[in-house]
Amino acid sequence: MDKLNISLGIVSVSLLVLLGVQFLPEDTHYCESRNMTMDCERVSSTSRTCYPNLENTKGNKFCREGWVQIDIVDIPHHFPIKYRCDNVKCVEINSS
Questions:
Q1: CA distance 39 to 72
Q2: pLDDT > 70: what percent of the chain?
Q3: N or C, which terminus of the chain has less Cβ within 10 Å?
């Protein structure tokens, strides 16, 4: 009985970890001066403040030149590569 409970516990924890990884938010915006990406649920009207939560302002971050929406390109068998794109070109960015 103990081996069954331990096995069920391990399987349950493994499933939760795997499902949790799938539901982690992707970063949606990039700030060049901070060299950081962040998941923004919304940005201010000036695009200078990123709000990760719709309900409150906890965790918001300011970017002096404005947050830029990024596109995620997923290459099979590699880590996702993030790009900052404007109307002319896309530039690969480093996420830290």
A1: 12
A2: 57
A3: N
Count of domains for the chain: 1
3-state secondary structure the chain: CHHHHHHHHHHHHHHHHHHHHHCCCCCCEEECCCCEEECCCEECCCCCEEECCCCCCCCCEECCCCCEEEEEECCCCCCCEEEEECCCCEEEECCC
pLDDT digits (tens, 9 = 90+) for 54-96: 888 888 999 999 999 887 665 555 556 677 776 667 777 765 4
Please state, in angstroms and rounded to a whole number, the distance separating the CA atoms of residues 56 and 20: 23
User: Is 75 inside any structural domain?
Assistant: yes
Let me know: does 35 contact 29? Beta carbons within 8 Å: no
The answer to whether position 70 is within a domain reads yes
pTM over 0.90: no
91 residue type, one letter: V
Q: Which residues pair with 51 in a beta bridge?
A: 42
